[in-house]
């Protein structure tokens, strides 16, 4: 007779599955609540304690960890003869699901409750069954209760073994990351602190995407650690490029979560960012920055979208509109654009930036891992290095521009005025080239504007170009050996210059 060992926390469907096993000629060995449930439903089972000779110990923490159980699971065909001589019968199937540790992760609960939900025996049972895949079928997922019990071949057992090891691997990852947050000093887990000797990212596929950046590239979306909460109110699901663009838009919007802000993105680059007294004003100012590039763009708002704004949005072609909320009338208006993706962000923007504290890139040299570029800009620590001093309005424009600047590719230059971008350029191979391109896009509106730079100015030519276009002030990290010459030139040309001591390179 074949034997199955069943011990499940989530008992959904287990009665039906056990019934199928009995009909297929399996003897069932079970534990605790699972045993009681099976007997209650008329399914004959042997309690594990009757085999081991030990009742459940220390409040049920120990019930399956015994040689007569694990030898029966681990034995190969030759070793099974040895088992029988020791009055220890082999198992052909192991069905286990684990204490739901994931349900408690990240929640404000006592450590005792958290630790209580760390499964020990269940993980050991799954690993043992998966290790002996040649002889044992291991069921770690309720979905696999539909398996054809009468026709289990080696390929099926191999697939189920991999699934079980993936399950225990993710389970250990969840425990390790949660306990690290609980037990280790805060400084050791902050994004910019020294990274751990071993970093684990567990990725679980959510779905396949149509393709990646280009049609010939396969792509899929995976979850990791925790992901934001959002919902589609209209349009098709995200593409690979949509996700990248929406992320870029929200990254900037989150910088201004507490005010009316609008961000327009094209190919992960901002083509318009603005703050306004109203959300409509923010939209109009952002669009005015570069209405040509905004065509087919992604738009993010920091506040709920109403009907008036929605009418502006449907008047042009856009790929995605994402906001914390939409009025009912706004949704109805936006639905007139059948393919427009309308996305409601349920995660508060103030919390959004906490979801990705580390950045990872895979290179042929190895995996690069770094903390997030989230150093706050503090106006109290600014250093005005020129004779000319900034007005309050100029400081506000500088802070705004510098926050936007860190989201462009280096060499990044943002020209801003009245809390809106009027010229942007990034990804150029020379800083003066970025300055020239950004100011060229401004045309005749540069007078009285400010320039933000993600890195220091290596030469005075940048300052001369800015002054020629009647820019009023510059905010930059400073730190170049050419700083004295740059500052002297700014003084000579009557510009205000502030240094921050913060660099925002983005490669």
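^ Assign residues to that structure.
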């Amino acid at each position: 007779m074949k034997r199955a060992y069943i011990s499940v926390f989530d008992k959904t469907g287990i009665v039906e599955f056990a019934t199928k096993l009995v009909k297929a000629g399996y003897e069932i060995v079970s534990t605790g609540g699972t045993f009681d449930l099976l007997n209650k439903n008329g399914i004959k089972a042997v309690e594990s304690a009757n085999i081991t000779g030990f009742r459940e110990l220390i409040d049920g923490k120990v019930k399956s960890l015994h040689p007569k159980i694990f030898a029966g699971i681990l034995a190969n065909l030759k070793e099974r003869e040895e088992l029988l001589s020791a009055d220890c019968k082999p198992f052909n199937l192991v069905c286990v699901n684990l204490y739901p540790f994931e349900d408690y992760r990240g929640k404000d609960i006592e450590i005792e409750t958290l630790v209580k939900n760390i499964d020990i025996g269940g993980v050991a049972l799954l690993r043992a069954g998966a290790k002996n895949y040649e002889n044992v079928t291991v069921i770690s997922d309720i979905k696999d209760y539909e398996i054809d019990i009468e026709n289990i071949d080696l390929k099926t057992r191999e697939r189920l073994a991999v699934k079980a090891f993936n399950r225990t691997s993710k389970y250990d990852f969840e425990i390790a990351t949660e306990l690290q947050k609980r037990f280790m000093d805060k400084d050791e887990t902050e994004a910019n602190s020294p990274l751990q000797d071993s970093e684990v990212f567990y990725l679980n596929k959510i779905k396949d995407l149509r393709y990646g950046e280009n049609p010939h590239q396969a792509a899929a979306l995976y979850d990791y650690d925790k992901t934001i909460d959002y919902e589609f109110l209209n349009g098709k699901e995200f593409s690979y490029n949509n996700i990248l663009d929406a992320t870029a838009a929200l990254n900037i919007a989150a910088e201004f979560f507490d005010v009316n802000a609008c961000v327009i993105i094209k190919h992960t680059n901002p083509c318009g960012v603005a703050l306004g007294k109203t959300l409509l004003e923010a939209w109009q100012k952002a669009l005015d920055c570069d209405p040509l590039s905004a065509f087919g763009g992604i738009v993010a708002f920091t506040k709920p979208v109403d009907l008036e704004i929605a009418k502006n949005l449907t008047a042009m072609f856009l790929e995605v509109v994402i906001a914390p909320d939409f009025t009912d009338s706004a949704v109805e208006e936006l639905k007139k654009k059948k393919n427009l993706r309308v996305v409601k962000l349920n995660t508060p923007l103030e919390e959004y930036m906490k979801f990705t504290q580390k950045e990872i890139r895979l290179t042929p040299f190895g995996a690069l891992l770094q903390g997030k570029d989230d150093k706050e800009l503090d106006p109290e620590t600014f250093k005005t290095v020129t004779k000319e001093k900034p007005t309050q309005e100029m400081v506000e424009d500088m802070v705004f521009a510098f926050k936007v600047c860190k989201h462009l590719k280096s060499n990044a230059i943002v020209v801003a005025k009245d809390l809106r971008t009027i010229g942007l350029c990034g990804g150029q191979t020379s800083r003066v080239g970025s300055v020239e391109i950004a100011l060229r896009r401004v045309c005749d509106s540069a007078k009285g504007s400010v320039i933000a730079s993600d890195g220091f100015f290596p030469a005075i030519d940048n300052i001369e170009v800015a002054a020629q276009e009647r820019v009023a002030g510059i905010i930059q990290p400073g730190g170049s050996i050419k700083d004295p010459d740059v500052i002297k030139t700014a003084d000579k040309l009557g510009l205000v210059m502030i240094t921050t001591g913060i660099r925002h390179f983005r490669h």
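The longest strand covers residues 2-8.
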